[in-house]
Design a protein that fits this description.
Blueprint lengths: L9 E6 L2 E5 L5 E5 L12 H22 L6 E13 L2 E14 L6 H19 L1 H8 L11
Antiparallel strand pairs: 1-2, 2-3, 4-5
Helix pairs in contact: 1-2
Length: 146
């Protein structure tokens, strides 16, 4: 592993149950429990996981197909079931469903033809998020001395 392979975010509380994640470039996203009145619309950590999964593969597919034609419709719906069992809390039955359409015109047939392959290649090889989930990468946690 190299310094170029390292990715990071810092998560800090903004209020009880509410957080901001900041990347090294200064980008931020807020999230929380979604259970405090007035915050029902904020993303929960599980929804961020689903968004990361959908976003990662959407980027791959969009780059591949948009070389040929801009889509007239492009969405990815990611679903899963949050369960608690002998392994603890976790997500099961993760599913990403693409809904993509291309208008008639130059490159549209080619974009439609490569769409299934682009989705499969993203899932099988390119999308870091889905590859990490599927390979079951361990997560190390620690507490730093204050």
């Amino acid at each position: 592993m190299t310094e170029n392979s390292l990715r990071s975010v810092t998560v800090e509380p903004t209020a009880t149950g509410h957080f901001v994640a900041t990347n090294p470039r200064g980008g931020t996203i807020t999230f929380g429990t979604g259970s405090t009145p007035g915050t029902e619309a904020e993303f929960t950590p599980v929804e961020l996981l689903l968004a990361a999964l959908g976003g990662c593969t959407a980027v791959d597919v969009d780059v591949a197909t948009s070389r040929h034609a801009e889509p007239s419709r492009f969405s990815v719906t990611v679903t899963g079931h949050k369960i608690e069992d002998e392994l603890g809390n976790r997500m099961t039955d993760l599913r990403a469903v693409f809904s993509v359409a291309f208008p008639d015109g130059d490159g549209a047939e080619r974009a439609r033809a490569i769409l299934p392959r682009a989705v499969k290649t993203s899932h099988d090889r390119l999308c870091t998020v889905s590859r990490t989930i599927e390979t079951g990468t361990p997560v190390a946690v620690s507490v730093e001395d204050a």
